[in-house]
Amino acid sequence: MNAHKKDLDLQSRISAYTLEDEEYWSFRGRSVRHHCHDLIQYPAMMIPEMQGELIDAVLEEDQSIRRVLDPFVGSGTTLGEAMCRGLDFLGIDINPLAVLACEVKSGPLYIEKLKDKSEKILDTIKNDLSDEVSVEFSGIDKWFTFTAKVELSVIHRAIKKEPSKWARKVFWLSMSSTVRAVCNSRSSTYKLHIKSDDQIETIPSAIEVFEKRLRKNIERIEAQKKILKERNVLKMASSISNIVIKNTDASGKIRTPYKYDLLVSSPPYGDNQTTVTYGQFSYLPLMWIDLNDIDNLRKNDFLAHQNAIDSMSLGGSIKDAKEKYSELRYKSESLCSCISEIEEVNPHNIKKLTSFVYDLDKALVNSLSMLRDDAYMIWTLGNRRVSNIEVPLDRIMRELLEFEGCHFVHKVERKIPTKRMAVRNKIASTMGKESILIMRK
Ligand SMILES: C[S@@+](CC[C@H](N)C(=O)[O-])C[C@H]1O[C@@H](n2cnc3c(N)ncnc32)[C@H](O)[C@@H]1O
Hints:
By secondary structure, this protein is of the alpha/beta class. The protein has a single domain, classed as Vaccinia Virus protein VP39 (Rossmann fold, 3-Layer(aba) Sandwich), CATH 3.40.50.150. The chain has 17 helices and 11 strands. The strands form 3 sheets. Strands 5-2-1-6-7-11-10 form a 7-stranded mixed β-sheet, sandwiched between helices. Strands 3-4 form a two-stranded antiparallel ribbon. The longest helix is centred in the middle third of the chain and has 25 residues. The radius of gyration is 22 Å and the shape is globular. The site of S-adenosylmethionine (SAM) has 22 residues, from loops.
């Protein structure tokens, strides 16, 4: 079948879902996270079932698909869905916490051993009565009470005593959410922002939180193993998928031995500093984790200060913004008109937007070089506002990809029913929507 005919088939396959229910893709009431998708609360996660159904729609069109790529893998929603289908996978992310989450998802899934080791570690924790603080970093006294520091140190020491790296990774991941729960930073924002004294007084015990999270995580890993077994994609205690996770910049050069058959991803929708600060969100947890246990970490410069990861992420540097714009202006008309609108209101803001799109474009070109010809791409995108002007990332991405010779296949717009923001103002009405852009290389 020729590629264009396949595109039309895929388009009608996806459109068919909305024939009976216009809001099918809003996933109202169907966005609960299960098994490996619930191991970490990471910002801006995609809905697993939705990505799974989209992957299935593409697989029905093209049964030769074996390898899936996600250049902005985050917590690994695509990874979990690829594993369920026995597909090989490459995930890339600049944030080491995302890499840790993906490494835990990847397995091995030794449930009985994990249960055994967990009881041992919980015992070690209970028997450690020392009040020594084993981790030091600048700002520790601002972000943690003395009790939290002592309890987190007890957990840290106990994890370090565990001899198996795969088990330590599961423990570090449980510790990462414990750190978020007991630190002095507000949970209502991803930015580091100090709690009020009253809120600090009600911070729970780190040891109790850790035990709860660890026990829950074991249940989730057990559920993941069961699903993989039911789907016949489990060999001994591991998924049959060949999985590679890289901690690197998707806009830098990346070498891969293979070409990938399908891309499923959601990039950030703006520079981290002014949209979602994935780096600040991860900074305190990463301070308490032994980073030697995360495989393939890039240089350790990402913890130099609390904004380091965010400034390494897409759009983190606004240097040479003018030159960047002169390269981009031929590639996306929608970007040009958006920039002119913003320039009239607040010229300062265009540097950040230009730099973000410039880095995104480099990441797109890189991703395309890792894909085989005719590979489909499923991009989940959010349109944000800059100076109260909507940035049409879905149109910009389409134009950037078309500039590289890609073909538009379909676009689905979905409402996000769970957004916590008020729906009244203009910002919320845009943020409460998301687009799924389907393109072909
Ligand atoms: C929207 S999130 C992805 C969420 C993911 N789809 C999930 O379900 O968890 C975007 C991700 O892009 C990553 N990121 C930002 N800039 C990056 C870059 N230059 N290279 C690689 N990853 C980057 C962020 O760290 C973040 O994890």
